[in-house]
Specification:
Layout (H helix, E strand, L loop, with lengths): L8 E3 L5 E10 L2 E6 L2 E6 L15 E11 L2 E10 L2 E4 L4 H12 L10 E8 L2 E8 L5 E8 L2 E2 L2 E4 L5 H15 L3 E8 L6 E4 L5 H13 L2 E9 L3 E8 L19 E9 L4 H13 L4 E6 L2 E4 L10 E10 L3 H14 L14 E7 L4 E2 L4 E2 L8 H10 L11 H8 L5 E4 L2
Parallel strand pairs: 10-13, 12-14, 13-15
Antiparallel strand pairs: 1-16, 2-3, 2-5, 3-4, 5-6, 6-7, 8-9, 9-10, 11-12, 15-16, 17-20, 17-21, 18-20, 19-20, 19-24, 22-23
The structure holds 7-(2-hydroxyethyl)-8-mercaptoguanine.
7-(2-hydroxyethyl)-8-mercaptoguanine (GSY) binds next to strand 20 and strand 21.
Length: 413
Amino acid sequence: MPQRTHGVRVPLPSSLVPVTIVRRRNRFAVDVRAGRRRLVLHLPNSGRMQELLATGAVGLAAVAAQARGRTQGTLVLVRHRGRWVGVDARLPNRLFETALRAGALRPFRGYRRWRREVPVAGVRLDFVLEGPGGPCLVETKSCNRVDDGVALFPDAPTVRGTAHLRLLARAARAGRRAAVVWFVQRDDARVLRPFAAADPDFALAMARAAQAGVEFYAYTCRVTPRAVTVGSRIPVQADPKTVAARRVRPRRWVRAYIGLGSNQGDRLALLQEAEARLAARPQIRITGRSPVYESAPVGYTAQPWFLNRVLQIETTLPPHRLLTALQTVEAALGRVRTVRWGPRTIDLDLLLYGEATIATPRLVVPHPRLPSRRFVLQPLVDLDPGLRLPDGRSVRALLQAVGQAQALRMVPG
Ligand code: GSY
């Protein structure tokens, strides 16, 4: 059951000014329009926030009477899909301190004194709380990325964040209490997870910190132009299965799914030849093949229709070596990479690898476009109607959500 926390509220300045985002100027500044004025605002947040800071998005800013340095104010809120979202990453510390004073967060009741910005082992910790049971080390984090109810953190690599987790893990192993508290500055999250695709090192550090005994808490917030108020506590899933790819070393057979696509030459023969070349490897066995579908091109649409199918395989190859094997088959069958997303004799995509979540510059698994491609989702459901992604999403539900707009028809194969 979500736990409700009443009354923890940080008021926002009363004179917030409506602005329209023009563009992100750099990591910490954004160009906006306020009426007829063009302003440069400070963005107190190092996250990527691409979906929030789209050109034309509406926001609210604290505009200074006189410009300070190169900026004329601070962006505080952005309107996104009908709700206000907080973008000031400094706010969580204030929310947490307000909550401490009010004794409003159950896991931290009983701490009457605390220090802020405490240097420990070369890192600055947000809080060290003093209580009868000994100190508790706390880092607060601001999160404002939510996909389908899942709060994802971080949305850009954070070396500092990973260093904090490692420090907290060491403290926990030494028997001290240590915690990370996320404030999701919006009200539509029901769970928080590491965003492994954005920062695999942070995701791994989070899994290790959880194993070491670091406590994780996350709270949603009700955000209005007047105040940010702490809402419900939501679960944090550190996901011990999230590991950097180089650490996935199967000794046994791992199930994986490979997407095949061709829209040049003898398309069906190419799909069959690609399968035969994979099956010829001792480390790969084919355990299922979907029907063949003819599908309208998705993405770059000025190209011929594709033939697509998905193979279910078992393999002892680790993910990057499997990727190399797929690229070797592509090269042997004459694939030349010219136009990105353009015509190709054969394309072999690693869609899923066991339950692994992998995010490295060369390989991202699950395949990042899998959830939006009918020509992949339909064959996956044909192979296993109960299939789920590592984050728990049902492939069949994703297929239903995509609908029938992307044309697809089964052909003899
Ligand atoms: O990564 C697959 C290449 N590809 C395809 C494809 O295989 N089928 C369809 N229908 N559209 C596609 N767009 C791209 S890129």
